[in-house]
Write a structure and sequence with these properties.
This protein is α/β, with parallel strands linked by helices. It has a single domain, classed as Collagenase (Catalytic Domain), CATH 3.40.390. The chain is 43% helix and 12% strand. The chain contains seven helices and four strands; from the N terminus they run H-E-H-H-H-E-E-E-H-H-H. A four-stranded mixed beta sheet has the order 1-2-4-3. A hairpin with a 5-residue loop joins strand 3 and strand 4. Helix 2 crosses helix 6 and helix 6 runs antiparallel to helix 7. The longest helix is centred in the N-terminal third of the chain and has 18 residues. It is globular. It starts with a helix and ends with a helix.
Length: 195
């Protein structure tokens, strides 16, 4: 019986290509490299968001949907603009940040959350990341008031910059289709499963 099953699986794979199980993306880890915040409650919430980010990026349904996305690039000289969706996903899953250029399937997170205890008027900014800085800066008012899925979205968005994806600073109608925004929004959608 076991031999018959193995022969059937071999014939199925040979006739129809690799099975869905064989097409999964590599196991991915999210590692705290450095986490700086004001108090232990904030730290615990950030660690939970990191864990959720890791769970989502390893979720087969998330992976399947990610591989169907149509990403846009809004910077004219973006060196990544000619990548296919599969190449974009492979770049994300490589974990090869500019500050740790090793393919290790790991997001090495440098994260500071200690500025702006109150949301400033007339601003939607919840943090920032600089191209020459490995650190993700998130404002404390956001961490304290946002859901874990929203924080995971922000973390995924900002971390995607560290592997080379960027977007126009000014808002426009297609910005949500850029890799950082679309990736972050998809992480948030699936993060609700794990909150």
């Amino acid at each position: 019986m076991v031999m018959a099953r193995i022969i059937f699986q071999f014939c199925f794979i040979t006739a129809f290509g690799l099975s869905a199980a064989a097409q999964t993306l590599p196991k991915f880890s999210v590692r705290e490299a450095q986490l700086t915040t004001i108090d232990t409650d904030d730290r615990e919430k950030m660690l939970k968001a990191m864990k959720i980010f890791e769970q989502v990026i390893n979720d087969p349904d998330f992976q399947k949907e990610l591989l169907t996305q149509k990403f846009l690039f809004d910077l004219p000289n973006d060196p990544m603009r000619h990548l296919t969706t599969k190449q974009i996903v492979d770049t994300l899953y490589s974990g090869k940040e500019w500050y740790d250029p090793v393919v290790d399937n790991t997001a090495d997170i440098y994260w500071i959350c200690n500025k702006r205890k109150h949301k400033p008027p007339f601003s939607t900014a919840i943090g920032y990341g600089l191209p020459t800085d490995s650190t993700i800066h998130t404002y404390i008012y956001f961490v304290r008031n946002a859901s874990l899925s929203e924080i995971a979205n922000n973390l995924a968005h900002e971390w995607s910059h560290k592997v080379g994806f960027d977007h126009e600073f000014k808002d426009h109608k297609d910005r949500d289709q850029t890799v950082p925004y679309l990736f972050g929004d998809l992480v948030e959608k699936y993060a609700k499963r794990y909150e």
